[in-house]
Records
---
Amino acid sequence: MPFDPRFIARLIPALLEGAEVTVELSLLTMAICLVGGLPVALARSVRGPLAWLAGGYIQLVRNTPLLIQMYLVYFGLSMAGIPLSGFASGLLALCLQNCGYVAEIYRGGLQSVSLRQFEAGKALGMRRWTLYTTVILPQVVARVIPPLTNQAISIIKDTAQVAAIAVMDVMKVAQIWVESSANTYDVFLGVAIIYLCLTSLASLAGKLFERRLAFAQ
Amino acid sequence: MNDVSSTAIEAPRVQYRPMLEVSCISKRFGTLEVLRNVSLSVGAGEVVVVIGPSGSGKTTLLRCINLLEDYEEGIVTVDGAPSGYRRDPKSGRRLRMSEREIAASRETIGIVFQNYNLFPHMTVLQNIVAAPVRVKGVARRTAEARARDLLAMVGLSDKATEYPVRLSGGQQQRVAIARALAMDPKMMLFDEVTSALDPELVGEVLAAMQQLARDGMTMIVVTHEMSFARDIADRIVFMDGGGVVEEGKPEQVFFRPSTDRVRLFLKRYNDRYRI
Amino acid sequence: MNTFAPLIKGYWYLLRGAGMTLLMAGAAVVPATICGILLALLQIFGTRALRSAVVAYLFVMRGIPLLVLLTFTYYLLPLTGIDLPAFWGVVMVLSLYYAAFMSEVFRAGILSLPQAQWDAARSLGMRRRLMLQIVIFPQALRLASPPFVNLCVNLIKATSLVSIVGLWELTMASREIVERTLAPFQIFLGAAGLYFCMCYALALYGRHLERRVLHGH
């Protein structure tokens, strides 16, 4: 019963439709978090109550499961009168969590640039703006690309959890097909291959970015 | 089995079998020849100091002797027994010895490194007894007693229960010497052991090495410390570009060198340090 | 606080769920760690064939979501005839999944030790097993302990996914209460709080370890 070509012929388009949703969700999350992580990282760096708030937010999202966060958004918000679709809830939860992680990546990247670079630039008479844009930021960019790539892969894998709130991503499609047919093996293979392709693509993209943008260490 | 060496470059001043016999070692890193056909003979109780510019292969030579590095050609013999590679008596081919044999032969050669390399998660005493107890099977109490004797010899009796991170560089280096001695090696190799030390800590390490030499240990010392080399060496070997350029007694090499390369090296050294 | 009544009433049930979560994570940690160390050693010392096998295994485990593995083990395992209680089935999947990540952590720890330590051990006549036992592992495991604890936190959060395949732990417990009381916000918040307590405590311990590792030992 595995490798039944007619079954596979019907399965693949369905899976690909689900994959579309997965890709959409992943790209949106990544884009939003790349931008959204910046203010959080900045908030953490300044002294004062803002840093404490940002830090607390990051600890909250890091120490609770994504699934619970999704349930909170999906069921909790609708109870509070703001009914969000499954897709929107999933997106919101994913963004809330990953903005925290991305902010930490940014902070780590900034901190890892040696203090000596700051001192060398200032010694050469650079003003703050020039120092940051020509010396510090290029190095930070080089250093955050690998962890960001890992985060992207993590996001792609986390999107699978939206299946629990009835979003038709590739995982949900797979669940439906597994429950309604006896051909578990084929469905598994299909889903696994799709995710492996997506994560490998993300990994490759990351390496490409590294090569083209990284001119420090 | 008596294989009295007859292949030494110079007629050995010692009549008995040499403690160390290095025959025609060659080593390449890719296209770079790091050691070219190097031969060396060291008698029991002899102190040989190897000097030369950086990149001359001195450190590589030491590391080849106790097979921390592989080498393409040549055989090393320690006290008559091959170490690292042996020649198959039937086919004459050069074979690598088994890991077990190599580990066993390493017990007979002690080495002290430039960066002390103490085990940071063990106390000084544990550092010294670890190998005798776990490799040679010495009883722990015996090993600890011996360790304390060695610590006394290098002047660190009060540091037995300290962790290496709490010791100065010179102290750590002396512990490293004690650790190597704890295995009762037949000879000791010293790889630029004072180069990483602050100048004021160098003296205590050199003093420990002097004591060892006086007690009759066979030693090969790679160093930059020229005055120390003059004091301690029975023989000086000058290496450059992967080969032995000149060797002889200290007075001869330092004051009447017969090659220009040595003369140039010593001149530069004298200019820098006003010896 | 009338709105939080459902939470207060269901609190004991949630607490039991948290206990099950810890049990599951605890049961999975041990085999995951052992397999992780094994995989790391195989990657460093193994033959080419073994190394390729490990690399392939890591590629798959890090490229597909845990949910996919859980779902399909749930469906496929009974078909192979192995009669395993569901609890041990998910523990097995969790272990195999996290072993992959742990192996990378241990491998990094081992490889980050300076070559000088290997040289010193070898020059004293130590052979590989002894060297690993008394010189390499004590140092490498110490170095690896902060990221290891981080993985344990992730493991605790990952147990929430087993609720999607129908196993009972904290997330499932909270879903059950929500279905009865229709108070998702309070209940899921309560569950999040419990997760937070478990994970944050562990994370604090991880930070303590990190400080100890940084300041030498």
---
Amino acid sequence: MRLSSCALAVAAASLCLSSALAQEAPQIVRQNLMKEIGRSVGAMGAIAKGEKPYDAAVVEQSLTTISTNIQAFPDQFPPGSEEGHETDALPTVWERPEEFRSQADELYSEAQALLAAMPADQAAVGEAMRRLGATCSDCHETFRAKKQ
Amino acid sequence: MALRWSRVLGAGAAVIVLGAAVLWYGSAPRPASAETWEGLGEPDLARGEALFWAGGCTGCHAADGAKGEDARILSGGLALTSPFGTFHVPNISSDPEAGIGAWTLAEFGNAMTRGVGRDGEHLYPSFPYTSYVRMTPADVNDLYGYLQTLPASDNVTPPHDLPFPYNMRMALGPWKFLFFGDEPRVELASADDRIRRGQFLVEGPGHCGECHTPRNALGGLKADLWLAGAANPEGEGRIPNITPGSRSVGSWSEADLVSYFETGFTPDYDSVGGSMVEVQQNLSHLPGEDLAAIAAYLKAVPARE
């Protein structure tokens, strides 16, 4: 009994370790979450600009990705990830965590509301882009390093 | 010989006196004639609101970071830092005491298009009348009518904080003589109506060139570098070149520009940044055809690198 529980503990610990090793740095995880959001916004933008025909599946998938990713996003800033991997995160992320989280929530709610209403044509996708755009720049201005 | 010298001296004195007289006369604040602001009729408030957003009044005159309905409360108070000192933006809300609610149309029009204040004084070009001068009296009437419908604020703003010699308003007379006029910023010989509309919006109410064009040591715009990008007057970084020769936005299509004005997304779906965030939010209130006109004009101006 004792032996088996010990073995179990060892097994659990090694499982933890291996998954920790396989896990990427939080800087990379959050950058990938944002890149996917960017690609989703891009897919909607192509429709809004008329470069691609309206496609409800694309719009739905894009809005779903945006809301899923932004929900996970604020959890990818553990202590120790303030620097490295070319992170653009500003110290404000850790200085004002509540504000940071509420900004992410704002985009989440916006994406959820848009999903519920489901933009039904090119013009509606354009309007959705306006609403998403405002939340993006608000948060970037406070929490992301400026591009030079 | 003595006679000749006295003649030279006399002529010199005459030139100096004449020069001083010309300078004095030439540099006095010059409001428009009273008839300019008469008989304009009832303002068109919808046009006035469009001019309000095109002009970005709220960017400087509302409280810092004001959003939504708060952006329509023009209480002033923002401090604009510049190489010449700090300008404190005045209250232009409809409050009759603290704001401009008691101003006549002529007083408002002379401030907007002549840079002349209510007491007949020169205004500093931190208030971009150097661009607004391209607006017509009808535009001014519509805008003023719209501003009067906005909420009153009793906020009293401090005077500008400028060191000598920039605190001397008289010096703005010669400055205006050198740098203030209503000519087009660029000659666009083959421009169609859409480009002309864009030219009005960019060179006039939009006052884009006030930040996107570099200035000389006296604060005048460098005419040959129109929209070619400039140092950021409020601190680090640069305000980008927005001519077709720009390395950052020269490759953007007109549709890209319109989409950027509407949504704040760049063609690679990054978000608008810096002081342009607020400008973009104002521009997003404009009708699509006006944004298309701005884009067409930006593609028509001379490329600068």
---
Amino acid sequence: MTAEKTDEQLLSDFLTGERAALAELALRYEPRLLGLALGLLAGQRDLACDAIQETWLRVIRFGNQFAGRSSFKTWVYRIAVNQCRSLQTLRAAGETTDPPPAKHATDAGPARAAEAADQNHAVRQAVERLDADKRLVILLCYHTGMTHEQAAEILELPLGTLKSRLHAALTELRAALSAAEATS
Amino acid sequence: MSDAPTAPLEQQLAELTAWHGPVPGLWRRALKTTESQRAGSRSPSMLRQPVPGWLVGALAVAALIIVAVMANLPSLSRARESPPSRAVRRTPASALETSLQEATGDGLRDLASLGYVSSPPGGTPGGGGGAVRGGGKGGRVSTPAQGTATVSEPTAERQVIRKATIELKAKDVQAVFLKASQLLSEARGEYVQDSSLTGEGVHTEASLTLRVAADRLPEVLNELRQLAEVRSEKITGEDVTGQVVDLEARLRNEQRVEAELLTLLETRKNSPLKEILELRSSISGVRQAIEQLTAQRDRFGRLVSLATVLVIIRPADAPAPPPPKTGLWSHFGDTFQRAWENGTLFLVNTLAGLVSVLIGGLVWWVLLVVAILIVRAYRRRTRPSA
């Protein structure tokens, strides 16, 4: 039985002409990257798809420049984050948002579902009100499978700086959520 | 104070960056886009599947066979053998080819791929479609293509390049030539791209390549028809909307990449010199791509906005050009004729060579005879008597 190839090996295989290697990389990362892009782009699926397509374009185009100083994961996430930032600045604010469906909401009864949807909505709104840096830090740090070290590497920040920003972001988020609960 | 949020909040935050539903497979689209771009710029692609050697060999052999067959086709051979200097006495077909080559400077193949298109006012012929209309005794019978199969297609955003060829039969070739060249509206940017008037009497021939505003093409053709009797007429077009849209999309994409790279360069001023140089190199590459795409787009724009009309004028009493030979029998006859001519030529060349050796080496022949005589006389003297 052959051992599973690392991301870097797959990238190298792809660069030598093996398409299946890119497919394997996409299998590993595309859903997660899409999810992150969706969070960073306020739930706009079309924009998220644009950002991730551009990310793959850059992986294909500049894959031969990947020097291995970081892991493939942090490299591809950095590209995706930069794409999302670019799209955010390019697109004018005020477009219709398309919040993702609340997966867990359907598992319970209607009352629980409505409550969960409300909570999700409140959290989303509170996150949206954070400034861009804090929003990025908080979404990246709580993104599935992401460690603080990796997040720091993606954002090119020292680990300490990342943690202090995360702390500030969480404090602000909690305050916003408390205020929202108090008013409702 | 702990950084860790409460479990539900952590779950909700994770949920904000979760993707639900099918994965759209964006990597495939990216791969396609990259490959089409690389195919356009003919850069070596690292993404191609490795091709087995035997397949390459088989393809090469097949290509050689095709080239050999194509090279032996009579029509192509004639076209290849006719030098450009023969344009003075060119047939309408060769005149069209050479004129079209001169029209864009990139040869007939480019024209065929790009089309000669324009935006017609009502209905456009489909890509590569065309019409030939007969006129006079020698006119070729044809089917008008305008406004037939493609009438129902939307034309508002269509990008169509059009070309027209019209062959006229006139009593006074020179007068018609002058009138034809005055049909243009310089105010609208129309111009004569190429013109020639050669020969005398029944051998007089004039040709004009006009670039006219696309929407004026029918009007100009009507005016040309009124100048003299039409011997033949042909209108062709090619829809390049898809190519233009693709070009513009690629251009927008490259511009976006350039903007991003510039932003990156601005924000990384303190980065190592190597990285900055790499970034500049990337920007340079992107800019070059933008310039190429812009030039291609402008070229399409020019071809679309100005239709090309080739006008060939011949005297009314000029003999009609012989129809081109086609078919296998004609090909066999041509091959046999060429073989016979080559054989005769070889025989004549051999005889000429022999004569040349005989006359050119006359001095040596004389010297040889003298030498032989001397040798024989010497032998007789030295031979012992019986």
---
Amino acid sequence: MDFSLRPKTYISLVLIVLFSSGGNIFLSQGMKQIGAVRVGSAMDLVRLFVEIFTSGWIWMGIAALLLFLGCFMVVLSWADYSFVSPASASSYIVVPLVGHFLLGEKVPPLHWAGIMIICVGVGLVRHTAPSTTRKE
Amino acid sequence: MTLRTASFLAITVLANSGGEIAVTRAMKDIGEIKNFKLAALLTVFKRAFHSGWMRLAIALLAAGFFSLLALLSWADVSFVIPATASTYVFGGLGAKFLLGEQLSPARWAGIVLVSVGVALVCAS
């Protein structure tokens, strides 16, 4: 079984991490601007949809997540889902770092410990065969 | 963690893992992509989006997306995104039982570590 990563697998995983991190950060910014969701009537729902889909941050988030989906689809055409999904989890480092340093969010020590353990788990998965259903 | 946050987190995780497994089924049916020119990729995406698996994936991912949007409106991104890592557990089970992937002990160990990390994140 081949445990090495082909360049196209590596590049796809890097793009997946960048687009998923960017998408989540943009969406977070957009929804923070809109505020907590309170839907008491149909008009509230309409108002919420208008606010969501007129936000530049939300559209940037949607664009980034569509690019993420495209890269995700491409790499899944040859690699295992159980490999791609955890291997792309470097966004668990990128997102809290950006949340902490750029958005001013507080990240407690236990939270950081959890993130580090997640990363060790991802590292273990990264050293398994990218494809078990066909030759990588 | 409030009941509202836990509920939306569960919807986000289950819809996303189910959606991604459905995307995998659609792409495995198409086969390995070897031509990365834009026109060729667009043709592949067009084929993929006509499959029933991809339609199911879109429905599930849309549910996960709107659930995530609601969640992000009141919770910190540095809590929400790591907490959704439990998608790995459901994804691993789905990959084994629905996609027929062979998950080695190392891969399972990685998934268990990710789960422990998620528990720590949720507790903090």
